Structure formats: structure tokens, C-alpha cells
Amino acid sequence: MKNILIALALVTTTATASAATYTFQQDVDGYQGAMDVTMYSSYPDSSNGYQQELSVDASDSGSPNHVLLRFDELFGAGAGQIKAGEQIVSATLTLEITSAGSGILFHDMLMDWNSASATWNSFGDGVQTDGIQAAATPFLVLGADNGDSNIESGTLVLDFTDALRRMQAGSVPGYGWALLPFMPNGTNGVDFYSAEGYDLNTRPLLTVEVAAVPEPGTWAMLAAGLGLIGAVARRRA
Ligand SMILES: [Ca+2]
Ligand SMILES: [Ca+2]
User: Fold this and answer.
1) Angle 150-44-121 (CA atoms, 0-180°, nearest 5)?
2) Which residues surround ligand 1, an ion (CB under 5 A)?
3) Cα–Cα distance between 103 and 190 in angstroms, integer?
4) Among 19, 38, 111, 173, which one is most buried in terms of CB atoms within 10 A?
5) Given CA atoms 52, 58, 61, 66 in this order, what sign does their dihedral have?
6) Which ligand is located closest to the Cα atom of residue 194?
7) CA separation for the pair 60, 237 (Å, rounded)
8) Model confidence over 153-168: pLDDT tens digits?
9) What are the domain boundaries of the chain?
């Protein structure tokens, strides 16, 4: 009796706590929620959301570029979405770097934006890390304030676990991230494919692994099983 109950409890919790992995990449498996844009100080009113590559640079022919990147529709009840109550175990952002460069500072975006209308001038003078447009402190810093190729070309995989947990918890509004250059010496631009990249597999990719929380019924069954085990043990004692 006791062994059967333990086995039942273990099987039930293992089944509901199995991990799932969600991936979000523009136009792959029906996902349409990615958006990105480079804002050029040299073309301060020009809208560039359609470009196949993005560029973070302190000096693109003398002028800085800022990049905005976001993934919408991550959370919900749909088949490919992160469900309410699912615990984020890990998350990564994968970028396909086409030009090695100095570095990138990642800030949470706090102001809403759209890649069809975001320009250097629409943010005043590029994205401001003022705690209103974007968070004052970067949550991830790659590379250094020099002109070296600190970020190599090729596939770059970044740990975005905490970034996704902030979104799930609602401590950030979910407007994605500003990708900013080191100023003033991050003069070697980092380029990578956008959500419009010709090859779908090179577009920015968000991968989120979750562990399901056991449903209330499972907990009840587990508790009942443990209670019976306890009762059996007490009778034996
Ligand atoms: Ca874009
Ligand atoms: Ca470069």
C-alpha cells in the first residue's frame, strides 16, 4: 500500500512538472510578434524598420546608431505562448552577428514604440537612458569602450533569463530592449540580422524554457497520498 501511494504521487508530479521550451522567431511557426529598428543620428527622421540588418555603433561614418528590439505576444493561453503560472527556468536571445564590433549595452525599454515610426528624433536625440524612455542602468554589457572586435561575428547566444522573468512579473512593461553602443569609443559597429532578415533562421531568436507548476488537483492527490502514508506509518508505530 505504502509503496503504491509513493509511486502514484511521484508519477503524477513528474507528469505535470515536465519542462516545455518555447521559441519566438519572426515568421517561424506562425510567430509574428518580433519588431526591431536601427535609428540613425545621421538620418534622424528616417524610419528604417524594414532593413534586413541592425547596427549598434558609436560612430557609423562619424554618427551613432541605436537599435530597438522587442518580442510581443510572449505570454498568453495560445499554443506557442508562455502560460500563466509557468516558471521560467532559462531564456536566451540568439543574434546572428554579421559584423564584429566594439560592444552593446542592453537596457529595458520603458516607453512604447513601433518600428514603423521610431526614429532618432522621435526619441529626442536617440534613446535616452533616463528611467523614462529606457532604464538608466544596462542589465547586460557586452564588449568594451574601444574599437576592437570584442563581439565576434557568428552566432551570439545571450542569457536573457532575468530579462524574461522581469517581463513575466510585470516589473517592466514588455517593450523590449534598447541596444546602445559604448560612447564615445565603441566605434566598431556591431551588425546583426533583423526580424526582416532574408533567412528566417538568422533572425533574432528568443528561446524560453519553463517548468509547469503542478495543478491544484495534483497537489491535493499528493497531499492525500502523503497523509495516507503518514496514517499507515503511525499505525505501524
Ligand atoms: Ca525591423
Ligand atoms: Ca564592425
Assistant:
1) 105
2) 36, 49, 115, 194, 196
3) 7
4) 38
5) positive
6) 1
7) 79
8) 999 999 999 999 999 9
9) 1-17+214-237, 25-212
